[in-house]
Specification:
- The complex is a heterodimer of chains A (about 325) and B (about 325).
- With about 325 residues, chain A is α/β, with parallel strands linked by helices.
- Chain A has eleven helices and twelve strands.
- Chain A has helices at about 65-70, 95-100, 120-130, 135-150, 165-180, 195-215, 225-230, 250-255, 260-265, 270-275, 310, and strands spanning about 10-25, 30-50, 50-55, 80-85, 85, 105, 185-190, 215-220, 235-240, 240-245, 320, 325-330.
- In chain A, the strands form two sheets. In chain A, strands 6-7-8-3-9-10-12-11 form an eight-stranded mixed beta sheet, sandwiched between helices.
- In chain A, strand 4 and strand 5 form a beta hairpin.
- Chain A is globular, with a radius of gyration of 21 Å.
- Chain B is of the alpha/beta class and about 325 residues long.
- Chain B contains 13 helices and twelve strands.
- In chain B, the strands form two sheets. In chain B, strands 6-7-8-3-9-10-12-11 form an eight-stranded mixed beta sheet, sandwiched between helices. A four-stranded antiparallel beta sheet of chain B has the order 2-1-4-5.
- Classes of the chains: A alpha/beta (about 325), B alpha/beta (about 325).
- The complex binds adenosine-5'-triphosphate (2 copies) and magnesium ion (2 copies).
- One adenosine-5'-triphosphate binds near residues 21, 48, 49 and 59 of chain B.
- The site of one magnesium ion has 3 residues of chain A, from helix 1.
């Protein structure tokens, strides 16, 4: 998409036609592929330097898979991922390993993502060792500096993950991902497992780190209120595809896609007067299986505004905004 | 109006290797017939243990209900025999949980599970039970109910399984439905479906509901009254409109401020509640929220505030709630 506007220089990451299929196989001795789970099925977007792109959508729509395929933790089935103009999908071995320093991931579950047998110091310091960035005393100092950066007491280095609360563990995970001075971070639901009163602490921390270190984020979440708070632009995903992408104001003020409209109308608002008057767009049924998605527009089976053409043709990914204020949508209504 | 449920001084503890976990620390409240009460609070605040204690579903040991009375429809549930409590649980009080998969038996069809309850509790024969099961599934909005009766739980989606749990809960026409975070594991669009469904059923059937959640947004659209819990205490209780218009407890105010609102302009910075919830084995003296509280005074760290009525419909446990109210009057909730 950004190739259409001349500002290529500020683009850090460009994803084009990204597909990630997982094969379903049958048979014990001779494995035959019988179908594909189309987890990500042709996704294109770009992220500018210092920007936060939010990625939202319901469970199983392919958000995490998109993040992993970008970082080459999964090798994409098709498509291109350009990081600072360099193609990642063809990169291998040492080159890829070195490239990974620039791109890190923060995970949803602060309990499962930290090795319980390592001290905080070793968890945070490990990437420094792996990438030969610092050893011995220098490493120790860097670890303490990182702990301070994420609001933890540097004196915690010798403690183990189980001695910390969920929010503190998430801070440890963030410190670890920052150890190698990355430019780009995929934050995969970094606050979903935390208590409401702790979520704001972590979101503020991520925002502070972004402005002090100039980080670029892909922020994956299903909480639309929080996504709007932290994102500059937001992409909405449904069943492996993007349905809409625009800035955080337009998405909430004039959502174009019927799915985005339904999603927004379902978010509860902490005000009983508003809730009493609210008209919800209630979606019928469930999300179809990514193995056998509906023909044409894959949202049509639940869409309150589906037309005949929706079953026949896949809607085009169109910019309904202006070249300056892009508003991308994939829907036959437009 | 007489209360359907009255809880008096309920106290539940867990006796563990590390010490005594003070999970529920003397809570009292009432619930009227047909009323919806929400209990909110963060993880570990005692919401689940509090309601499980009502129907005596606490694992014992390590748990123990150490004090309290639970008056339900004229009887103290704490004084009943195990058999009598089981009767109440099956017939009069229904419960649905956060994860419907763990409450459904994976090797029985959905139909078998609903019918079993109907045959056991209401003495229906097989064909009556089957007919009623279809009606119940239709009532909770399962399309093609008759043909889906013979499916197994894994063939249903998460939202459908939660509908089945609700159908089973309603099968015996309970007077009270206890829903423990029934939508937390579901997507927002499915959550909206379930909330709408329960609202509709409530109007139809007229049962009372206790809805446990940590999401203040869900509460706003659902409840008539709200109880806010912190570290095993009720810190505030109010009618739903009052609570959101003018929270009295610093913790409630902090919760409202720390979440961005979809209907408001993008806030510059979130206002978190600093610090962490207390360790329930080693509770601080005084108010449990004091270490994190902006309104803390010396008294707060020495003496726990009792929960006192501030109006006929409201209660709050805070020495300085009037300062909270004064601040809101001056600057609003969302600063
Ligand atoms: N390693 C894998 N092998 C096979 N299928 C997978 C794998 N990872 C993901 N999938 C499938 O791909 C689809 C997308 O999954 P993904 O985890 O990306 O969703 P998500 O949007 O992150 O969902 P959630 O909000 O629940 O985290 C799902 O149908 C999932 O079951
Ligand atoms: N079987 C048990 N043994 C020991 N402690 C327990 C047990 N069950 C609960 N607790 C403790 O009791 C306290 C209250 O737990 P409870 O499950 O009521 O919290 P909750 O408010 O429902 O939290 P959540 O939102 O996470 O469900 C917690 O500190 C918990 O660790
Ligand atoms: Mg995911
Ligand atoms: Mg609970």
């Amino acid at each position: 998409m950004s190739s259409e506007n001349g500002s290529k220089k500020d683009v850090l990451l460009e994803v084009k036609g990204l597909k990630m299929y997982f094969p379903i196989t049958k048979g014990i001795i001779i494995q035959r592929k019988i179908a594909d789970i189309k987890a990500v099925d042709g996704v294109s977007f770009s992220i500018k330097h210092g920007e936060t792109l939010g990625l939202v959508g319901e469970s199983g729509c392919g958000k995490s898979t998109t993040g992993r395929a970008i970082l080459q933790l999964y090798r994409p089935t098709a498509g291109s991922v350009l990081f600072e103009g360099v193609e990642l999908t063809e990169m291998k071995g040492e080159t890829l390993r070195r490239q990974r320093r620039e791109m890190q991931m923060i995970f949803q579950d602060p309990y499962a993502s930290l090795n319980p047998r390592l001290t905080v110091g070793n968890i945070v310091g490990e990437p420094l060792e792996v990438h030969n960035l610092a050893k011995g005393k220098e490493r120790q100092e860097r670890v303490q500096e990182l702990l301070k950066l994420v609001g933890l007491n540097p004196y915690f280095v010798n403690r183990y993950p189980h001695e910390f609360s969920g929010g503190q563990r998430q801070r440890i995970g963030i410190a670890r991902s920052l150890a190698v001075n990355p430019k780009f971070i995929v934050a995969d639901e970094p606050i979903s497992a935390l208590d409401v009163s702790i979520q704001a602490q972590i979101v503020n921390l991520l925002e502070d780190l972004q402005s002090s270190l100039g980080l670029t984020y892909l922020f994956i979440a299903h909480d639309l209120s929080m996504v709007r708070h932290i994102s500059d632009r937001i992409a909405v995903m449904y069943l492996g595809k993007l349905v809409e992408l625009t800035d955080h104001i337009a998405l909430y003020e004039e959502p174009l896609h019927p799915y985005t409209q339904a999603l927004l109308s379902a978010v509860p608002i902490p005000d009983p007067y508003i809730e009493e008057k609210r008209q919800r767009i209630v979606l019928e049924g469930d999300v179809p299986s990514p193995t056998n998605p509906p023909s044409g527009c894959n949202f049509r089976t639940r869409c309150p505004r589906a037309m005949d053409i929706c079953a026949e043709k896949d809607p085009e990914w169109k910019n309904m905004g202006t070249p300056e204020n892009e508003h991308w949508v994939a829907c036959h209504l437009y | 109006m007489a209360a359907l449920l009255e809880v008096k001084g309920l106290k539940t503890q867990f006796f563990t290797q590390d010490g005594v976990v003070h999970a529920v620390n003397g809570i009292s409240y009432k619930l009227h017939e047909g009323e919806t009460l929400a209990i909110v609070g963060e993880s570990g605040s005692g919401k689940s243990v509090g309601v499980m204690s009502l129907i005596r579903l606490i694992p014992q040991p390590p748990g123990k209900i150490v004090a309290g009375e639970v008056w339900f429809d004229g009887r103290d549930l704490m004084a009943l025999t195990d058999d009598e409590v089981r009767q109440v649980r099956g017939n009069r009080i229904a419960m649905i949980f956060q994860d419907p998969m763990t409450s459904l038996n994976p090797v029985l069809t959905i139909g078998q599970q609903i019918m079993e309850a109907l045959q056991l509790h209401l003495g229906m024969d097989k064909s009556q039970a089957r007919q009623r099961a279809i009606e119940l599934l239709e009532m909770v909005g399962i399309p093609g109910a008759a043909s889906r009766l013979d499916s197994y739980p894994h063939q249903y989606s998460g939202g459908m399984r939660q509908r089945v749990m609700i159908a089973m809960g309603l099968s015996c026409n309970p007077q009270l439905l206890i829903a423990d975070e029934p939508t937390t594991a579901l997507d927002v669009t499915i959550q909206a479906q379930i909330v709408d469904l329960v609202q509709g059923l409530k109007e139809q059937i007229g049962m009372a509901i206790i809805w446990i959640t940590h999401d203040l947004g869900v509460v706003a659209g659902l409840a008539e009254r709200v109880i806010v819990m912190y570290a095993g205490h009720i810190v505030e209780e109010a009618e739903v409109h009052e609570l959101y218009e003018e929270p009295h407890h610093p913790y409630t105010l902090g919760l409202l401020r720390s979440v961005p609102r979809l209907d408001m302009g993008k806030s510059k910075r979130l206002i978190p509640i600093d610090g962490l919830p207390p360790d329930l084995i080693d509770l601080p003296p005084g108010c449990p929220f004091a270490p994190r509280c902006q309104y803390r005074t010396e008294k707060c760290t020495q003496e726990a505030p009792p929960i006192d009525a501030t109006s006929p419909t409201r209660r709050v446990a805070c020495w300085n709630w009037e300062n909270v109210v004064a601040d809101i009057k001056e600057g609003g909730i969302y600063v």
